[in-house]
Please model this.
Amino acid sequence: MSAAVLVTVLVAGGVYLILQRGLVRAALGFVLIGHAANIIILAAGGQQDREPAYVAEGMPTEGLSDPLLQAFSLTAIVITFALTVYLFALAGHGGDEDGNTSDAEPSDAAERHGTVVDTPPWRGEPLGTTSTGDQPTGRTDGKEHA
Model:
């Protein structure tokens, strides 16, 4: 399979995934496009008939591959990885498809939707009693110890 066909398939799959609704799918689309960029950069150097780009003293420099293309490819790998991590972090912190927050704090959701999350610690009964009035709760108003 030639590099052009492989790049075409990767870019087509990446564009398809980026145009989907979910952020995880878009992140996977960017991963595919990043792989396509690496393949096209390495194919531009004509790596198949060349030696590795290592030059020691007394070695001939003819027939060596271009180290600049390898550096570009390594840079593209790092950028793709950073973008992937960032998009997955956004997808993990985001909400569900219907607009509900998934892992936000309950107080954040209450502020957005106007509901009360925390109930007050007492319901109007005096301290030291329960709602039935027969069992003490352990809290006192300080008169017993004075």
